[in-house]
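Data deposition worksheet. Section B asks for the primary sequence of the deposited chain exactly as it was used as input, without tags or linkers unless they were present during the calculation. Section C holds the resulting structure in token form. Section D is free text for depositor observations; keep each observation to a single sentence. Incomplete worksheets are returned to the depositor.
Section A, Depositor: J.P.
Section B:
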Amino acid sequence: MNNTAPLLISADGAVVTWTINLPHFGNAVSGADFIAAFESAVDAANADTGIGAVILTGEGKLFSAGGNVKEMADRQGMFGLDAIAQRYAYVDGIQRIPRALARLEVPIIAAVNGAAVGAGCDLAAMCDIRVASERASFAESFVQIGLVPGDGGTWFLQRAIGYERAAEMTFTGDRIDAATALEWGLVSRVVPHDQLMTAAGELAERIAKNPSYTLRMAKRLLQESRTGSLESTLAMAAAMQPLAHRDPEHERRIAKWRTS
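Section C:
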């Protein structure tokens, strides 16, 4: 493992852990190296049918502080471009992350180990499931520095917690703690900080013990159900289910059920 890589990847059986490894930059998710590494990790997970679940977490005290505010203040990189060039830099930059996660076939759990701010909050919202440390916090803080969510946060956040609560977070930029995130449905559970990765790992293992192809189809159906009609979802389910019926793993499990 390259310990200086922007995204550390480790595997334990069918569970893979991705760790954002930029603690000196607040685990910023807007850098070109991180974005490229993230896309590569998604493509690798899709290609490996032995992977049943992914855990995403941050190195150090933060999950992710989002964009690199120092670069913004210093007008470095894309932040030194004119408005038109910046528009395209967003499309070809940080917006590649939500597109990558949208094509990730494997269930992904965000293990939120600390503050998830701005694009970091949005990154957590892009995941299928979120487990939070008691030290975690969340802030859709863009407006507080005169910006809007440029990474798709307005799309993901309201699907996680509903329009009104997403609007409150987006319009105020205020931070919410882990307990509030649990009450609002932004996370599925809050655990003691030193038990976070254990809890996320146990959940990932419960997911990954199920057939890989079934998990990938079930995730695709869930995604279709967020935006598609009932008819389109039913049609997709009808097309997928015969494939599942013919999967040797289905046959093996049915045979085991018959003898139990």
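Section D:
The chain has a mean pLDDT of 93.
The two ends are 43 Å apart (CA to CA).
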